[in-house]
Specification:
The longest helix is centred in the C-terminal third of the chain and has 21 residues. Helix 1 crosses helix 3 and helix 2 crosses helix 3. The protein has three helices and no strands. The chain is mainly alpha-helical.
Length: 63
């Protein structure tokens, strides 16, 4: 697993805003392929998903 690739994918996704992040989380949960993670293996995609969920959980607490 390449942490740098995971970080890059998370950054690309987060730059798109909360609405897009939530949509991509749903897609990743279903196993759908998304452009931002095409270069990642399954473990890396799951790490991106976990990181996005963690980020959004913190964001939701701030609302």
């Amino acid at each position: 697993m390449n942490p740098q690739k995971i970080e890059q994918a998370v950054t690309l996704i987060c730059d798109q805003g909360c609405v897009r992040i939530r949509m991509l989380i749903q897609l990743l949960e279903t196993g759908a392929a998304i452009q931002e993670t095409t270069e990642l293996d399954e473990a890396e995609r799951q790490a991106v998903l976990a990181e996005l969920k963690s980020i959004m959980a913190v964001y939701d607490l701030r609302k």
